[in-house]
Amino acid sequence: MKTKHIFWGLLFVSIGLLILLKNIGLLYIDLSNIWKFWPVAIILWGISYFTKNNIVKGFIAGIAAIILAISLFAFFNSSYNFVCNAFSVHNDDFDFTINENKDTSQYVASYTSKIKYGEFNLNAGAGTFVINDSTNDLVHAVTQGLKNNYDLIRDDSGDKSTVTLKMKKRQLTFSDEHNKNKTLIKLNTTPVWDLNFDVGAAAIDFDLSPFRTDKIDIKMGAASMKIKMGSKSDVTKFHLKAGVSSVDILVPGTSGCEIHCNTALSSKDFDDFNKINSNLYRTENFDSAKKKIYLDIDTGISSIHVSRYTTE
Question: Under 8 Å CB-to-CB from 181, ≥6 apart: which residues?
Fold first, then answer.
């Protein structure tokens, strides 16, 4: 057997086994700092080239693959734990408060009746980001962290208004509560929205059920995300691109929903969805439903849960 086959085979088997053991609760070892030893795999791989004996070469390549697998698993697992511990993670009631005793800033874009379509863009680094309420303004954002650390840019064209909230300085001190970036966003319920979020390591908690959303695009790094979709629009297209993450998506039971997923080494839990093929899932009412939601999910090592909720 060729050395490269041994290496890649053991690499994938080891990663898969580690994820499986973690998912079923049988992995209790703290691997948080082991990822730093990943260069050992490169060293062993190089040593194998100096060895003429194929058995020894295969053995060294195998050990290198196992070390690299453990290092990769430990790195991604540490990244996920970092996000969960560093930020205020959501709960089921979308509870989030800004501490007025800290440095807070407000950003407001006013609403006029001529605005029929809205586009909101958030460009930020690490932090906690929440949407859990509406506003009479077009956009109302309150931030806690560095004072006046965002620019609000507005561009109106006809009956459409584009609002961009962009972070100026992205450095963050996790050990100091004063400098943690928290952002509470409120949107007006009247316009049809396109929403675009580009954030780093983050805790995201969005209740979008009150809003008419045609397009939702989220790019994030290591993150914990919960998002509740609504059924106000006939068609909603949702795209998520994420690294190491925990993803929980709620969709209304009355809407037809299709999931297209491109996931690497991720656990998938899609309640009440029929599997069409390895990457495609649909609800049983997808063809007959008047309202449709398309979920396009592209993630790294992640835990992904999509479920349906009952609307009143």
Answer: 124, 125, 126, 127, 128, 143, 144, 145, 146, 149, 167, 172
SS3 content of the chain, % helix, strand, coil (to 5): 25, 40, 35
Q: pLDDT tens across 61-107, in order?
A: 778 888 877 777 766 665 555 555 444 444 444 445 555 556 789 99
Please state at what angle helix 54-86 crosses helix 3-23, rounded to 10 degrees.
30
- Exposure string for 183-215, b = 16+ CB within 10 A, e = fewer: bbbbbbebbbbbbbbebbbbbbbbbbbbbbbbb
Whether the Cβ atoms of residue 144 and residue 98 lie closer than 8 Å to each other: yes
In terms of Cα–Cα distance, which of 298, 96, 302, 296 is closest to 205?
96
Residue 252's closest CA among 308, 209, 295? 308
Token reading at 312: 């009143």
Q: Where are the domains of the chain?
A: 3-86, 104-309
- What's the rounded Cα separation, in Å, for the pair 152 and 72? 39
For residue 218 the two structure tokens come to 């989220």
Secondary structure (DSSP) of 260-289: EEEESS-EEEETT-EEEETTEEE-TTTTT-
C-beta separation of 304 from 271 below 8 A: no
Q: Is 230 helix (H, G, I), strand (E, B) or coil?
A: coil
Cα separation of 245 and 220, whole Å? Answer: 9
